[in-house]
Write a structure and sequence with these properties.
The protein has twelve helices and 14 strands. The protein has 428 residues and is α+β, with helices and mostly antiparallel strands. Strands 1, 2, 5, 6, 7, 8, 9, 12, 13 and 14 form a ten-stranded mixed beta sheet that branches. It has a two-stranded antiparallel ribbon with strand order 3-4. It has a two-stranded antiparallel sheet with strand order 10-11. A hairpin with a 1-residue loop joins strand 13 and strand 14. Helix 2 packs antiparallel against helix 3, helix 5 packs across helix 6 and helix 9 (295-308) packs across helix 10. The N and C termini lie far apart (75 Å).
Length: 428
């Protein structure tokens, strides 16, 4: 299986068209916009017989050059926490993750230091600006698009903070139009990768000529806290890795996963199971011991979204699941009654990179592409899980839809518009 690269690699006319007004008129002024009644339907139902398919194209993924193996992780835990009353338990839990290696943005000697939250956040911004552009360019190439063809950027990250978001810097430095919409998502943790895909799907459903760039930038190693000695913290120190990923969702055409339905689900009263405690020293990751049991309440949510679409969640052709840990995948295999091999893409990400937070689902999709994709029309599900406890889920089919030529530069602009409300006339 191909390893992700660690080195940088090198509009239609916008005449507004108002939709037919109904009793409560709402309209979009977009070239080729859909009627309101179409927006609630799947792209397959809506566009059957047409060329319009909302498609998640092949992601690009890059991991940093510094590597720490499982053996090195266990040795460091033994040397740094000798005498810890629960060290044996922590070592066993780390060993059971199945992670063989992780990639981090600086040597482990530097990672184990804590120069302060300010210095860490400066490092986050510097690394993001150095590593994201090459991944974005590769994702655009995979989708056969240019920066000028992108209408919205969804940027997800929970391991550093910037305001304005990195989206503003990308627009200014990479040639994206100044009217590109910006959607930074910072507080959904690992679920944000799935949320980004779903919000891109929503946008392209509303605006069929739109293209959305998704960027996930996670430097989990910059959140290491040497004073956090709980078993959950020690486990996290041996589980999470760093990665940058990007992908394009095309509103028309392209090879990949044609998105058809998406949904969210929150498990009640679990807000404190996965959380950050934000202190002077930065983000302190809190992980409750009940987190591995979350597939029992979440599996029915996956069955529900599939059932609403007329599918059986246990009889799909491919599965892209957030690999928070091996038990997540093992339990979901049992609850959905699918063979463990069904989650091979997610498990490979966990084994080779560790839990790379919001980038997991994009890397698992990349591995699906690298395996050769799927037959036309093959059905699948994608799900990201994170704090809340939140699940972001979507359904789609594999497609090889033809790509329409992009119009010349300067002619694209997706705008939202609703005509003024006009009360219905009453008979004299």
């Amino acid at each position: 299986m191909r390893r992700a690269s660690t080195a940088p690699r090198t509009e239609h006319p916008t005449a507004a068209r108002t939709l037919t007004q109904r009793k409560r008129p709402v309209a979009f002024a977009v070239a080729g916009s859909r009627s309101p009644g179409e927006c609630g339907r799947s792209s397959r139902e809506r566009d059957e017989g047409a060329s319009v398919v909302v498609t998640l194209c092949k992601p690009a993924v890059s991991v940093p050059e510094h590597v720490i193996t499982m053996e090195e992780t266990l040795d460091l835990a033994r040397s740094h926490h000798e005498g810890h009353p629960q060290l044996a338990l922590a070592l066993r839990l780390i060993g059971n993750t199945g992670v063989t290696r992780r990639h981090i943005v600086q040597p482990i000697e530097e990672t184990l230091k804590h120069p302060g939250f300010e210095e860490r956040n400066i490092r986050y911004e510097r690394e993001a600006k150095a590593r994201v552009p090459a991944v974005v360019r590769e994702a655009l190439d995979n989708a056969a698009l240019r920066p000028a063809d992108i209408d919205m950027i969804v940027y997800v990250s929970c391991t550093g903070f910037m305001m304005p978001s990195l989206t503003a810097w990308l627009i200014n430095t990479m040639g994206f139009p100044s009217h590109t919409r910006q959607v930074p998502i910072a507080q959904l943790g690992c679920a944000a990768g799935g949320a980004a895909i779903n919000r891109a799907h929503d946008f392209c459903t509303a605006y069929p000529d739109a293209n959305v760039l998704i960027v996930a930038c996670e430097f989990c190693s910059l959140c290491y806290q040497p004073t956090d000695l709980g078993v959950g913290s020690l486990l996290s120190n041996g589980l999470f890795g760093d990665a940058v990923a990007a992908a394009v969702v095309r509103g028309r055409g392209g090879t990949g996963i044609a998105l058809e339905r998406n949904s969210s689900h929150l498990v009640p009263d679990t807000e404190d199971w996965i959380a950050y405690s934000v202190r002077a020293t930065g983000f302190h990751f809190l992980l409750d011991k009940r987190v591995p049991t979350t597939m029992e309440p979440l599996a029915p949510a996956l069955r529900e979204i599939a059932g609403a679409h007329g599918w059986d969640a246990g009889e799909l052709d491919f599965y892209i699941i957030h690999a928070g840990g091996p038990r997540i995948l093992d339990d979901l295999s049992r609850f959905l009654e699918v063979p463990p091999e069904a989650f091979r893409f997610s498990r490979a990400t966990l084994t080779e990179y560790g839990n790379i937070a919001s980038a997991v689902v994009l890397d698992a999709v990349r591995r699906l592409f690298d395996e050769g994709g799927q037959p036309e029309g093959a059905r699948g599900i994608l799900a990201g899980f994170g704090p809340g406890i939140t699940a972001e889920m979507c359904l789609g089919r594999w497609t090889n839809a033809p790509v329409s030529p992009q119009p010349s530069l300067g002619t694209r602009r997706i705008v939202g518009y609703s005509p003024p409300f006009q009360p219905a006339r009453t008979a004299a």
